[in-house]
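User: Predict the complex.
Assistant: Input components as received:
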Amino acid sequence: MSVWSKLAIAAGVALGLQAQGAGLEARAKLEAPEMRAIDLQGQFRSLGEYRGKVVLLNFWATWCPPCRREMPSMERLRRNMAGRPLEIVAVDSAETPEEVRAFLDTLDLGFPILLDSDGQNTRRWKVYALPTSFLLDAEGRIRYVLKGGAEWDEGEALQAIENLLGEAAQPVAR
Amino acid sequence: MHFGRTMKWLWALAALPAFAVQAALPEYRGFPGEGTRLLLWVSAERGRAGPEAEAAGRLASQGVAVWSLDPTGAYFLPQLPSSMDAIPVADIVDWLRAALASGKSVTVYAVSRAAVPVLRAAARLDAGERARLCMLLMYPNLYASAEALDEADYLDVGRLERLRVRILQPRRSAATLWLPVQIDHLAGLGAQVSHVILENLREGFWGRETPTEYETAESRHLDALLLREMESEACK
């Protein structure tokens, strides 16, 4: 095999790996911005209450087709992970509670939905596209970002969650 | 034979200026209108959608001449937002000047990333020429980068003193929350910026795969929407 053929294959593999890895972007343990929102029952919620758990934080809106498409996979993930330290939190961006409730009547979702009616949290997290999701480790640090939808109960997304759950299960080295 | 070759060269040289003038204007579709208004309609990267062409036709029948440009089609570019950044700005400058030379009142309407080449072209005009234009920008995408958790960066489009810009922003868009930042950015470049929120609509509502009933109805009234904005205080 010539050197050029090898180089061509290497380039192809490198491009393939790049494509395979596209989607979830790893972040170097970023501190999470503040999250202050209410849930559909009007209760104040913050990320602090999920400390010790891996968190899938998803910004979405009812009018956004890819947001709606990925929600069933988030619910399957929740059910598959029952009993494990994972919390799924979906933050609706800049809509009224009525719009959100009308949409939720069409889906059976067991994870908390938070309301960001004035968009303050969306701005604070600098979310420019919907859906945008963040995976936080058990220490509350941002480890992955995904712009666009995913099937959360399979493939790369599930692997990233499993990795973070695996880290959470390890004793902390001091 | 030698004479023949010389004649070919002479013919080619004679044809060059005419070709250069031709090449400087983008290939657009004209919808003649008898009135005093001319709308330069620049579609987004996905090309001219059926409802857009129909709306242009209805505007023409109401007296508004429309020059409709499908940039990715005209320049054989991939239907990607980044293709808009590759449109030759000099061509758009010539196109704007040709429109101004018509003597009609000129409004430019650009969708999404198509705002980039038209703003860049406007920046290259004289301030006096810019002052004669009004730009309607439908959910303009001017980002150089917009990554979650980071401040967004805007593309450099140049100075826009005396240019009237009116942003048409569908409410159901992630960009709506960032509209004040975009307005500040354009105002910082010298443009006179106003905006209108289009309630209950999403970006590209006239060409969506699964439109709501309201979006379908509104896409049939795209001409009325544009006529209203052309005649608004911001564009008068």
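Strands of chain A lie at 25-31, 36-39, 44-46, 54-60, 86-93, 113-116, 132-136, 141-147.
Let me know if you want any component modeled separately.
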